[in-house]
Amino acid sequence: MVGKWIKRIYLSAAYIFLYAPIIFLIIFSFNSAKNSSSWEGFSLKWYVSLFNNVRILKALSYTVIVALISSIFSTILGTISAIGIDKMSGWGKKLILNVNYLPVLNPDIVTAISLMTLFIFFKVTFGFKTLIISHIVFSTPYVIVSVLPKLKQMPKDLVKAAQDLGATPFYTLKRVILPQIAPGIFAGFLISFTMSIDDFVISFFNTGSGITNLSIEIYSMARRGISPEINALSTLMFVAIFILLFLANGKDLIKSERRNVNE
Length: 263
Description:
The chain is an all-alpha fold. The protein has eleven helices and no strands. The protein has two domains: 57-226, MetI-like (MetI-like fold, Orthogonal Bundle), CATH 1.10.3720.10; 230-263. The two termini are 35 Å apart.
């Protein structure tokens, strides 16, 4: 009995530690004062100001566009790479896996400077394309790590059975392999998307003039003070992500309940 209460207290403390700053941010996004050190009354003026701030909205659009494009390409490349790695064996597979873990374990600053040096060496003009390429390179290893466990969970004879029944390699990939590893692909996409939106170091070293995402914009604001408009923007992003997760999990719960009823 005591053990259960200790676990509940520990779990509650962990959630409070994780979500208290977010709750604080949401509350003060409705604060009429510009300074977050005091509460001066409820107001929506920072939300109105946010939608009138062309600079922040432009940075947000670049952030979302780069995140979507890089996540799609990272998911495609990561999924294909994971399937290829899964088919390998011996020391070659171990070598490729270790090489894949390097960008994940590397500090972001190392990856950022390495990519910047590579672009300079090949005389690539910094801008939108270098930003997208750097985000793809940065995110792809995370997709591979997400998809590989799902490939390992697949029945070993499933692909052979499909081929024995006359399925072509492409049909087997489309109708057998991809549906089995779809949760891992979706998780890899979400991780890639989140990492892209959150990233600052990779973006800072590999963007060009006039191309600014949210992380760089907020960094430039930090020198003169963060505007409460960022609190409003962060609140809207948090609510949007929460709704998406709720809908995704709700869909899975409905499917599982239907399966239980049918059984």
